[in-house]
Amino acid sequence: xxxxxxxxxxxxxxxxxxxxxxxxxxxxxxxxASWNAPSNIALLKYWGKHxxxxxMNPSLSMTLxxxxxxxxxxVKYSEHQDIVxxxxxxxxxxFAPKIKTFLxxxxxxxxxxxxxxxxxxxxxxxxxxxxxxSSASSMAALALCIADIDTQLSGDxxxxxxxxxxxxxxxxxxxxASRSVYGGYAVWGxxxxxEDSSDDFAVSFNQDIHPVFKAIHDDIxxxxxxxxxxxxxxxxxxxxxxYFREGRIAQANKHLEMLKTAxxxxxxxxxxxxxxxxxxxxxxxxxxxEESFTLLHPxxxxxxxxxxxFRKQSDIPVCFTLDAGPNIHLLYPEAYxxxxxxxxxxxxxxxxxxxxxxxxxxxxxxxxxxxx
Length: 372
Ligand code: PMV
Description:
- The chain is α+β, with helices and mostly antiparallel strands.
- A hairpin with a 2-residue loop joins strand 5 (82-87) and strand 6.
- 33% of the residues lie in helices and 23% in strands.
- The chain is globular.
- The chain contains eight helices and 14 strands.
- (3R)-3-hydroxy-3-methyl-5-(phosphonooxy)pentanoic acid binds at residues 42, 45-47, 59, 133, 135, 174-176, 232, 282, 323-324.
């Protein structure tokens, strides 16, 4: 089935994504799929959406290696849709409504899900309390399982088409999850400078990347692990009537061109300038929206000053980005790993909650696991 314009919000598809169009699962058979999916950190931020999970502006992310979700799914025909969800082996009925909302968004693409009984088991490699958003990895893993089963039904094993399908489904669960189906760098949102880019699904952006950007460390300095004060859906909606909306769209489009060139030319200065500016822009937009949110912690600002002055003094190309929370993602090339380790231990750790930080780096993307 092709995405039809009528299902979309004043938005034309740029590329076909094909689904099985099987109306229901054959009864008496159990289908299974199992995937690991990584989290990602946006260097260029998605903030603001319209229609059914379509982005206000394009975004670009780096996929992580260690922060991952693993999801296994079995599904069989049932008169009524039914979901049993386990997280780390424990049944969590509270998660079922979120999964149900997601399934209702994708039923026009995968009608078989409406008459199906799902058993889903999921785990994360990172602690829930670490202040890391788990929706990108968990929703990507869930979407990959559904795309896998849809592909078992259609028999279409074309890999790029499978990843587009998984990304489109992941987007309908959580926008940032659409980028987690690829390794390295990914772009979600149409931009003329990125080939095949689309608002419907993310695309891999790994061609002609300069060697210095092929292995970037991301150490996550945990400043405060308490859950964030604003959900991302509420946050995105703050952009609907934001005074800076048009300016932000223009800026994000410009930043994508600049980041693309920087990643391909190995231009660290531009990479640092754009990445830090994007982090500060995200938080400035939250602070300056009609309902104002300040998610930064005093120690976030202390750490930002320390990182920037260390960079000036040492000439080491280290920079930061932020997600929608107070924790710092410290980014630097592989070659400086040892020096940054002592910088963190000697100068930054004291400003982290219980001195804690997580180490991550550029990852290769999701992996299919043997279905149980
Ligand atoms: O995918 P969502 O709806 O949780 O939104 C993610 C928004 C940011 O993490 C702040 C930025 C991004 O592009 O990942």
